[in-house]
């Protein structure tokens, strides 16, 4: 018997090496695979990046027949099938993306036993024709990926998943392996009950991803912060998660305009665009994907270095799974979430049309996210506790550990909290108990006569929010626990009763206070930041501008305008890339005139020991970018300016303003085809000589100086553009 097991172990390792190139199994992988090969139902709870897919892919290769893999996302299916096919393993998808001919081909290969893994969406599985086809095939086992979708308490509940067991019964008594990266104890029980696999062997790996750094930031100037953060991590791969398709498109465009290689990903895009963008990210043709939660499930990209949540996620499970995309190779992984309670209120509005049960479940999940964001205790402790795992010491590797908030002695406060749970008969959740302690009188408290218990109002000198925070910390200390059958209801543990008998010192962290505003922050588009510039540096820059202008025999304004110099003296750019972020400076200007200015700023910064601001001047992502491209293209085609203004439904004056903006940034434009029709050569030459000799490009000054020549403002502005394009760009 021992030799048989040894042979099997050796065979497993040989197959692992042969097909996947690994010499060793990770964590519970080997035990899981052996359990499934023995024909047992298997339940796997394993964090993202820990190697769940091998737990069913390797047994599928080794067993006769075809393994059915039920997966919720087409992107996940495609990614895994592509990888398996590249390894020489016949894996196929069977879903709505296939043509009839493609479906017939897949069916034929399954029936002949060529296909080792068949990926099926739960919606496809409910079709009678799919069941009829699978009944005729030799099915080795069924793998249910993202099994948390089964549970109404899961973060991504899908009603079709609740029907899987009934459907599978039509295929016979097949072994089932259910896998998820995010299951709280309650969700775990719910999954097993629904699949009728309470007897299944459960393999639960630690949820502790030690290489991930967790950080929550107030959602203030979030767009500017994101651009700054990404530029600080230039060349590294990252994901930015947003809740809505509209916000995904907006943030992706904002990043692109600010010279970040970013692409959008959401279910509203055409399938070929989604695949193209996903592949570009995997192949390092794009640094950042801005996505809804649809992106990333099953995407095996090991070197994602940061995951940013622009919007608060709907649950801690979702947060954990999405942050789990970072650092899957065990190296650097940073997780930044921008938080405002207004986001939570928005999410609550989305839930208003759900039935009462679903609405209450969603509300509880949002409560957990709020608690996680606002709490000042170790982030890792909170996450692990949520998934039923205890961390004894603070991790030292999250924002709360690195920047601790004020702490107070809480022995008496914890005693009061436990007494409140006890005196309300251990039948209520955190909010109700907090209201009892704070002395809040409402209909629920009156109906249960909790305004008459001894502890009522004993903590009225503190807010309900304070008591909620304290109760969460007592939960993590395991003095109380949540009832799994009646989720949210607090029960006192043995440890809690022991504390009540003999209270001892207990340190409480005070929560973060997040500002209410800033959820839909908008960035400045054209103006320099409202911030005082360095007057001494401005003087030096203007002196340099005059010197450069003399050397090139040009007026100073042609080199850089005053607002651009003032912004340079605000942000201290020291590289060409940073200089291009200054308003009024494009790559053309930066290349042509930038070097002496950058040298001066670098020297000034070094000599004066200045801590340069790494803030970026955020360029607008609105239609201006599209207008700019359109205008340049039309001028290149020599389209009449009046026609361009009509096509864009803007006035001639506004069009010329747009052309001026393009020109001042350093782009060369040739308007001769238009100007030659409104000004003869002599008048053009006169205006060229004027702009060459003047110290200012002011149109008002020009009109006064040239009053006798009766030039229109439009003519002056167009000739100024021509002059700047010829000599400055």
Q: What is the straight-line distance between the termini? A: 83 Å
Strand order in the largest sheet: 3-4-2-5-6-1-7
pLDDT < 50 runs, ≥5 residues: 1-6, 517-531
Biggest sheet overview: 7 strands, parallel
Number of DSSP E strands: 17
Number of helices: 35
Helix/strand structural class: alpha/beta
Radius of gyration: 32 Å
* Fourth-tier CATH superfamily name of the largest domain: P-loop containing nucleotide triphosphate hydrolases
Shape: globular
Residues in helix, %: 40-55%
CATH topology of the largest domain: Rossmann fold
Identify the CATH architecture of the largest domain: 3-Layer(aba) Sandwich
Reading off the top of the CATH hierarchy, the class of the largest domain is best stated as Alpha Beta
- Overall pLDDT confidence: 85
Proportion of beta-strand residues: 5-15%
User: How many domain regions?
Assistant: 5
Care to give the gist of this entry?
The longest helix has 21 residues, at 587-607. 49% of the residues lie in helices and 11% in strands.
Structural description of this entry:
With 729 residues, the protein is α/β, with parallel strands linked by helices. 49% of the residues lie in helices and 11% in strands. The longest helix is centred in the last third of the chain and has 21 residues, at 587-607. The radius of gyration is 32 Å and the shape is globular. Residues 1-6 and 517-531 have low confidence and may be disordered. The strands form 4 sheets. It has a 7-stranded parallel β-sheet, sandwiched between helices. It has a 6-stranded parallel β-sheet with strand order 8-13-12-9-11-10, with helices on both faces. The protein has a two-stranded antiparallel ribbon with strand order 14-17. Helix 15 packs antiparallel against helix 16 and helix 20 packs across helix 22. The protein is built from 35 helices and 17 strands. The chain folds into 5 domains: 2-204, P-loop containing nucleotide triphosphate hydrolases (Rossmann fold, 3-Layer(aba) Sandwich); 212-400, P-loop containing nucleotide triphosphate hydrolases (Rossmann fold), CATH 3.40.50; 411-505, Winged helix-like DNA-binding domain superfamily/Winged helix DNA-binding domain (Arc Repressor Mutant, subunit A); 535-607, DNA polymerase, domain 1; 623-727, Orthogonal Bundle (Arc Repressor Mutant, subunit A).
